Amino acid sequence: MKDKETTRPERPPVRDEDGAISPEFLHAVQRAIAQGDAQALRALVRDLHEADLADVIELLSHEERLRLIELLGRQFNVEALSELEDSVRDDILESLPPQMIARAVRKLETDDAVWLLEDLPEEIRRRILASVPKAERAAVERALHYPENAAGRYMQTDFVAVPAHWTVGEVIDYLRTEEDLPDEFFEIYVVDPRFHVLGTVTTARLLRTPRETKVMDIAEKPIKVFHVLDDIEEVARQFEHYNLVSAPVVDDSGRLVGSLYIDDIVDVLEEEAAEDMLGMAGVHDEDISASVLETARARFAWLLVNLGTAVLASWVISWFDATIQQMVALAVLMPIVASMGGNAGTQTMAVTVRALATHELGRANIWRVVWRETAVGLINGLLFAVIMGLFAWWWFGSDDLGLIIAVAMVINLLAAALSGILIPIALEKMGADPALASTIFVTTVTDVVGFFAFLGLAAWWLGLGG
């Protein structure tokens, strides 16, 4: 009689129907950690992609994260460290032994290794790199010397370059026999003796060409060659504009030193889009894994500035307190004028910030776009003037009040259109980030203009507050 086989419960689904880590899977991981069951934990995460493992780690508490890494031991996929949010990465690295971080650096591509190490104290970074092979250490140290947003920080130093005099056959034989090649590559760089890029050849074209053909004969001039100090956001825009998959990176002497790949550029584009979106809400560079104190501190400054602008708008209202006391309807209607202006300004501002970020808006078309937005503001202002004028007349039985709010609506929507486009442009010219700073100025303009136009017209037209 056969021994009864012991079977472990089936693993819960890693992700739910919405694509997030499923609560069942997370609870199973937390249970294994709490029980110190290394075998069960390894069975749960054994075949997880490093990105999935990173998502699980981000959902755990600080103690659970460290315990998970401890229980997995050598089976912990160190590549997951490069997929973590910044705040979680820093939280974990402070407690990990240098040997484990060094193991991660050895396994990661140069750009990912740099991201892992860049915020560590200099002494700890040196201790970690001392355990890394010389060639890899030199590549990482060189990349760390480049500015944070430079292309050199994001390039990979593993690439394939061949001399111009080789034939296609020699290149193919080299690719088959050489062990020290990147795991994946899309293009082969053809270089001269000084390692200057002469052209690029895709692997597909290489394999379709007769062996005796000179590789230089099928090489194409690179669409773009980037410098190590080029701003990575501008590089990302060039990748997007020219539909690049990879591109060479050169140093001051024009020597090929690395390659940029589309997977890293996609991360840059996503990060830039996220920064712009968060910046417009005043929560620049924040993620949901940040601590309560960090989050509160980061938001406080922005909320304080908003408080100041709200006080400014209230101060404008105080100029007309006698007017408001004589006609309560003004207090009922004036938030509508300011709110419509704020929403219209935000619409224009969002389009403008995006156009500035993608370089669709420049000196060649700036005034055409300004006139376009002015016309849009005027048209919408007239349409909503009619709607609100009729509504105010129906509600309060006053045709004068309907006319006043109609005129105020036109004025404020025009102000919203102009401020929504001119403020981001002005901020960019001054070197400020339009995505981060535009919102507060645009809403301040629309609040102040809206209140002043509506209450000022009421005081003048109706003769109130005298």
What would your notes on this structure say?
By secondary structure, the protein is mainly alpha-helical. It folds into 4 domains: 18-96, no CATH class; 100-144, no CATH class; 161-264, CBS-domain (Roll), CATH 3.10.580; 292-462, Tetracycline Repressor, domain 2 (Orthogonal Bundle). Helices cover 62% and strands 6% of the residues. It contains 20 helices and 6 strands. The strands form 2 sheets. The chain has a 3-stranded mixed sheet. Strands 4-5-6 form a 3-stranded mixed sheet. The protein is globular.
Question: What is the fold's blueprint, element by element?
Answer:
Blueprint: H1 23-35, H2 38-45, H3 50-59, H4 62-72, H5 86-93, H6 98-107, H7 110-117, H8 122-129, H9 134-144, H10 151-154, E1 161-163, H11 168-177, E2 187-191, E3 197-202, H12 203-207, E4 226-227, H13 232-242, E5 246-250, E6 256-261, H14 262-280, H15 292-318, H16 321-326, H17 328-357, H18 366-396, H19 399-429, H20 434-462
Parallel strand pairs: 1-2, 4-5
Antiparallel strand pairs: 2-3, 5-6
Structural class: mainly alpha
Overall strand count:
6
Radius of gyration, rounded?
Answer: 30 Å
Mind summarizing the main beta sheet?
3 strands, mixed
Query: Mind telling me which CATH architecture of the largest domain this is?
Result: Orthogonal Bundle
Summed over residues and divided by their number, the pLDDT gives a mean of 84
Tally of contiguous helical segments: 20
Question: Total domains, how many?
Answer: 4
Summarize the structure.
The chain has helices at 23-35, 38-45, 50-59, 62-72, 86-93, 98-107, 110-117, 122-129, 134-144, 151-154, 168-177, 203-207, 232-242, 262-280, 292-318, 321-326, 328-357, 366-396, 399-429, 434-462, and strands at 161-163, 187-191, 197-202, 226-227, 246-250, 256-261. It is mainly alpha-helical and 466 residues long.
